[in-house]
Amino acid sequence: MYDVIITGGTIVDGTGAPATTGDVAIRDGVIVEVGAVSGTARRTIDADGALVTPGWVDIHTHYDGQVSWDDTIDPSFSNGVTTAVMGNCGVGFAPVRPGSERELIELMEGVEDIPGTALYEGMEWGRWESFGEYMDYLSTRQFGLDVAAQIPHGALRAYVMRDRAGDDVDATAEELAEMSRLVREGLEAGAVGFTTSRTVGHRSLWGTPVPGTFAAEDELLAIGAAMRDARRGVFEMIPASTVGELRALGGEHSTQQAEHAVMAAVSRASGRPVTFTLVQSPDFPPDLWREILTMTEAANADGAKLFPQVASRPIGFLTGLGGYHAFMRRPSYMAIAHLPLAERARVMAQPELRAAIMADSDVRPEAPGSMENVYGMFRRSAALMYPLDDPIDLEAPRERTLGAIAEAAGIDVLDAMYDFLISDGGRRFASLSTADLHARMEVLREMQMHPDTVTGLSDAGAHVTLICDATMPTTQLSFWTRDRHRGEQLPLEHVVHRQTLRNAELYGFSDRGAIRPGLRADVNVIDHARVRADAPVAHDDLPAGGTRLIQPVVGYLATVCAGTVTRIDDTDTGERPGRLVRSQAN
């Protein structure tokens, strides 16, 4: 007797091997048989005509606070993710000295756009100080999927260096020794990595850089040495110039060359894998991403283990009346911002109020953090916004932009933006792209095919009213293997491998990531013809009534986590088999 049998599916097993047709039998949380399975089960899932894949392993999330108040870990939960790695970008909530919680909250709010009210109210502060105690706290929680945590440089530096943590100063020898000790202890307590951010675009709510932004190479090497001694963990780095202005490091080489050299040195000295953000911004030289990949090949041939982390699609900055928009800091709008969404859209259609909002000047927010001028960005870039119509077209042509719509109607683009925001009861959203979408997708296709890269950057749990990229695991499948029509698609087996076994192996999760006997039973059953992520919807469901955007997802016939069926036909079964994943020495 099996616990679950999944019958007659097209098995894409996560290894990159060609798909086969067969059954998957599960007992005691483990896959015990694959192929032609005989026998009975307590539960049978008919997968005829559907894909059967491993559960997705999302290596770039920010659920560090949400794990305190949410037992589903959505939106990853509804996107087929069965393992989520959090603590990225050098921000998180441990270690933390009693009384210094506010600094870490304001850091997370500024960098990752998670409302501070939710973090104050929803988190169980006081349950931990050290990273090991944070891990012990997480081990008491149950979720819809597994979570793994990394040690954030921002919290570590704040804990050790206190008021000097965010300054452009070097740590003392004593401070380096203390940080190294805490990193090793955290890794041995089960942390799966260490993360740091060196981009000046990552700032706290009050505009200060993330502690560690200007850390000297010696500090990173000392932390790498602690990882070497612990024999575990991935070192993640957001290099300088990834977001925001360039900052010269050393003067002899370009910023990118210098940052790449630092990462290669850390990897060689520590013996640990290093993953880093690789994006192609319109502000960068057009072939910079390819140069970085070439440098990665050379470094890896010389003993490094570098894994550029790339996205499934360009980052989508969203504007809508239910989130950020061009008029949000204008006094006439701020006076009615408290109204329910539909009522707000209705009164904004009144000619007198419209004229007042359009004539107003912006009121600057009290906290000059990283989100300070997002409304200005949307105003300046209004012509480049793409309405997210049904179905969403990730390679929409220029004729679909608000600029083209305004030109065709003979009106100013901000008038077109205003009309868009109040249409359909204020429920619509548009996405900003500052470059040709087809050209950017071609870059991503080449990045995705490169043998050294890994797929990540969903930022799930973060940027809750600005970016809705937690659906990247779903759109990675639906767009690249089915919907792309303005360029070459990616092989199905390749796409599945990249967000299952490849990511599991990078983080040392040796018990999952493939449909193989003896491995953990994390499985998705997917209607490949129907799976998709729809346009975002605003939900006021964060602690203290905070708003977040979630894209509804359809097409997951079943998700199994540790042998337990957690979702059927895109519906939560109420089961919570997910637990904390602790690292193992390797």
Based on CA atoms alone, the radius of gyration comes out at: 23 Å
Share of residues in strands: 15-25%
What is the correct CATH architecture of the largest domain?
A: Alpha-Beta Barrel
User: How does the helix and strand content classify structurally?
Assistant: alpha/beta
CATH topology of the largest domain: TIM Barrel
Q: How much helicity do the residues have?
A: 25-40%
Poorly predicted segments:
244-253
| Bulk shape | globular
Q: Give the strand tally.
A: 25
Name the average pLDDT: 94
Task: Give me the secondary-structure topology.
Elements: E1 2-11, E2 20-27, E3 30-35, E4 41-46, E5 51-54, E6 56-58, E7 81-86, H1 101-112, H2 116-122, H3 131-138, E8 146-149, E9 151-152, H4 153-161, H5 173-188, E10 193-197, H6 217-230, E11 234-238, H7 255-270, E12 274-277, H8 288-301, E13 306-310, E14 317-320, H9 331-334, H10 341-348, H11 351-359, H12 374-380, E15 385-387, H13 402-409, H14 413-422, E16 429-432, H15 437-449, E17 454-455, H16 472-483, H17 492-498, H18 501-506, E18 523-526, E19 532-533, E20 537-539, E21 548-550, E22 553-554, E23 556-561, E24 564-568, E25 571-572
Parallel strand pairs: 1-4, 1-5, 6-7, 7-8, 9-10, 10-11, 11-12, 12-13, 13-17
Antiparallel strand pairs: 1-2, 2-3, 5-18, 14-16, 15-16, 18-23, 19-22, 20-21, 23-24, 24-25
Helix pairs in contact: 4-5, 5-6, 6-7, 7-8, 13-14
